[in-house]
Specification:
Blueprint (H helix, E strand, L loop, with lengths): L11 H18 L8 H7 L8 E2 H5 L5 H7 L1 H9 L5 E3 L5 E4 L13 E5 L9 H9 L4 E8 L6 E9 L2 H8 L6 E2 L2 E2 L1 E4 H11 L5 H12 L6 H11 L7 E6 L2 E5 L32 E5 L7 H10 L7 E3 L6 E5 L6 H10 L2 E2 L2 E2 L1 E4 L2 H20 L74 E4 L25
Length: about 475
């Protein structure tokens, strides 16, 4: 079989674009960007990947799509193979990684120049500016300066050179560099900041504070800072185990990913906060109500039950639009009690209703669903679905300018501009509180379960005994915590 021919990147146009393409990818992997870009850093440190990152992922970045769409992914692969010192591509041409370890950039302040005279942004794009400065020396980042309120380009930039000697050579140019016939005003970043300090009447000591802020408090994600923070704090203490009391039984509640069979599912309704096999079947403790139409008002059911002496009142599980509602009592319901209910509550919504028991299998399923819902509520915020990819990723933050897309020298703001998808809860069963009010997010739920609540304890401790456990303060939802 003939060897597959490699894409030609030697033509004049392709050669120029290949340089730009390689420069862009090398920027993504540079010390000045990689540890400050949350998304890239998570790819770089992904467990088991040995720092390899799929080239297809890199090629799908906004500033890379033009190269991929015009020349194809194989062309991008060949361009990356030309990286002299920073990057390497695997044998299959599928992944790329750094050849060297990431190092925390030092003396960025001293390697940075201030340059002014670029006019409006319509006359100076990020890519054009990078190309302009790259003709003088190797550049790590070009950060377009913007007004805080309007984000309008100020016509000036901070340019971080790879070496201090390159900065010196650039500032020593005579005549000064020109941008479209306009001679640039150039100076070190320190000289620019010192001038601003004097202009505002601040003491010279303010410059020291600015340098410290620049080196230690870079906005957005910072892998070095976060790593040091974790080292200082040490390992996080184990989270306490959570239990609920359900129909006379103590049940363990599992956080997502903590061990429940379906704990890693993305669809909330598939999560098992309480393992199904842990939920015992309490036979005869559940009734099914039908014939009430397309809606049900909980007080119309609970008030008559209260008059019959039922205490605590049963939990009603119902989804709007369903033709059935389930009443889950805290103990088996005797036949004479069922007969009294049938005699007392005969109509709802001016329609004749029917009361009946469930089959053993369906009753157990209803009780499992109820226990799972209780477990989710017991976890509080930890029981809520996570949105999108890993919740609050905030990619970027260390690329210079404030452009809303992936590209050279963007910084200041996090790169995560994608909106997080809100998890739908439209198909969750409707629940109610102890007073029969809907717990739809507008009113507080006051009933967790008639016969108990949540108990938290440290790992390794015995499960609290229901009969001998000391009284614990109740929270707003009736849960008990220790």
């Amino acid at each position: 079989m003939a060897e597959e021919s490699k894409p030609d990147i030697s033509s004049t146009e392709d050669a120029e674009q290949s340089v730009q393409c390689l420069h862009q990818v090398e920027f993504y992997f540079a010390d000045s960007n990689l540890p400050y870009d949350r998304f890239m850093w998570e790819l770089h440190t992904k467990e088991g990947a040995d720092h390899w990152i799929p080239i297809a992922t890199i090629a799908d970045f906004k500033r890379m799509r033009g190269y991929r769409d015009k020349h194809g992914l194989p062309w991008v692969v060949e361009v990356l193979r030309k990286s002299p010192t920073l990057l390497e591509v695997d044998e299959k041409g599928e992944n790329v990684r750094r050849k060297t370890e990431v190092k925390e950039p030092k003396d960025q302040w001293d390697r940075t120049a201030y340059a002014k005279g670029f006019g409006p942004e319509s006359e100076a794009s990020q890519m054009e500016l990078e190309k302009f400065f790259s003709q003088y020396a190797a550049v790590n980042a070009v950060r377009m300066r913007r007004h805080d309120a309007t984000k309008e380009f100020k016509g000036s930039v901070f340019v971080e050179f790879a070496e201090f000697t390159d900065l010196e050579k650039f500032l020593a140019l005579d005549p000064k560099p020109k941008w479209k016939d306009t001679e640039l005003v150039t100076m070190t970043k320190e000289a620019y900041c010192l001038g601003k300090i004097k202009e505002k009447g601040l003491p010279d000591s303010a410059l020291t504070a600015m340098r410290k802020t620049n080196s230690q408090s870079r906005k957005g994600f910072n892998a070095f800072r976060d790593s040091k923070g974790r080292e200082k704090k040490g390992p996080a203490p184990p989270k306490p185990e959570v239990y609920i009391q359900y129909m006379g039984n103590t049940l363990r509640v599992w956080r997502v990913g903590e061990g429940a069979p379906k704990g890693t599912k993305t669809d909330e309704k598939d999560w098992e906060f309480v393992k199904k096999e842990d939920v015992p079947h309490v036979k005869g403790a559940t009734l099914v109500l039908t014939g009430f139409g397309d809606n049900i008002q909980f007080p119309h059911v609970k008030e008559p039950l209260k008059e019959l002496g039922f205490e605590p009142l049963p939990f009603i599980q119902y989804q709007k639009g369903d033709s059935r509602a389930f009443l889950i009592f805290n103990a088996p319901l005797a036949d004479d009690k069922l007969a009294a209910i049938k005699e007392k509550i005969t109509t709802l919504n001016d329609q004749t209703i029917e009361w009946s028991r469930l089959s053993d299998e369906e009753e157990h399923q209803v009780q499992q669903t109820r226990a799972n819902s209780m477990g989710q509520r017991a976890l509080g915020p930890e029981g809520k679905p996570s949105n999108g990819r890993g919740g609050g990723r905030g990619r970027g933050g260390g690329r210079g300018g404030h452009r809303p897309h992936r590209g050279g020298a963007r910084g200041g703001n996090d790169r995560n501009a994608e909106k997080k998808a809100a998890a739908s809860t439209a198909d969750k069963p409707k629940e109610e509180d102890g007073e029969g009010k809907p717990a739809n997010g507008k009113r507080k739920r006051t009933e967790v379960e008639p016969d108990g609540g949540v108990t938290q304890g440290q790992r390794g401790q015995g499960v609290p005994s229901i009969g001998t456990a000391a009284k614990k303060p109740k929270t707003e939802d009736g849960a008990m915590t220790s």
